[in-house]
Amino acid sequence: MNVHGLLLRRHAGGAEERRHDGRVAVDHSNTRWCSDGFEISCENKEKVRVAFALDCCDREVMGHVATTEGIKGEDIRDLMVTAAEHRFGRINRLPRTIEWLTDNGSCYLATETRSFAKQIGLEPLTTPIESPQSNGMAEAFVRTFKRDYVRVSPCPDARTVIAQLPRWFDHYNTVHPHSALGYRSPREFINERSNREALSET
After folding, report:
1. Model confidence over 52-87: pLDDT tens digits?
2. Would you list the domain boundaries of the chain?
3. Cβ atoms of 101 and 128 closer than 8 Å
4. Domain 32-189, what fold?
5. Cα–Cα distance, 75 to 52 (Å, whole number)
6. Core vs surface per residue 73-87: b (16+ CB within 10 A) or e
7. Three-class secondary structure of residue 62 per DSSP
8. 34 near 56, Cβ under 8 Å?
9. Three-state DSSP state, 119
């Protein structure tokens, strides 16, 4: 039935949002941000759930939330604020609309979360159902982060992992080379682009 398109599409609730279709990467920072979540298993069997916000141009991780419980809508709303303040300081609304690309997780689809996103200037976009590759940049980041940080670090318990996360994200942003950025780290890429733009204005 699935092959012949005879199954009903799952409905997670709420109004239908415009779906993202096409290339995830963009040419300018603060045009599209993406978000996703992943799980870290500790040696004592505890689980840490992490959600992050990533710029789809410069690949900087602008914020994260971590918990031993499930990621909730309020966690994602906190993440949106963290990302906005990281890029623009303490503001009530973004200076221009920025796309917010996610999968169809309930924490992203919650009516209050989508409403809050629009209120602060984010445009919620979701990937097609059962098509996680449509948020491929976030998926690629998760693979890189688990390979280069989680698997090579001690993870005895949730408390230790949560304490290490800020240092891992900071290292990724400031040191970790990225092929799409000419093997520069996200912060190196941002700084170089800012310097070029400043020179072109003088």
Report:
1. 999 999 999 999 999 999 999 999 999 999 999 999
2. 32-189
3. no
4. Nucleotidyltransferase; domain 5 (3.30.420)
5. 10
6. bebbbebbebbbeeb
7. strand
8. yes
9. helix
Q: What angle do CA 118, 121, 127 make, to 5 degrees?
A: 60
Q: For residues 165 and 168, give the distance between their C-alpha atoms in angstroms, rounded to a whole number.
A: 5
Name residue 34's amino acid. C
Question: Tell me, what amino acid is at 179?
Answer: S
Q: Shortest CA distance to 62 belongs to which of 94, 40, 22?
A: 94
Q: Tokens in use for 177? A: 């080379």
Q: Read off the tokens for 96.
A: 């221009």
Residues 99, 122 contacting (CB under 8 angstroms): yes
Looking up tokens 């992203």, which residue turns up?
108
CA distance 120 to 27: 23
pLDDT one-digit tens code per residue, 84-108: 999 999 999 999 999 999 999 999 9
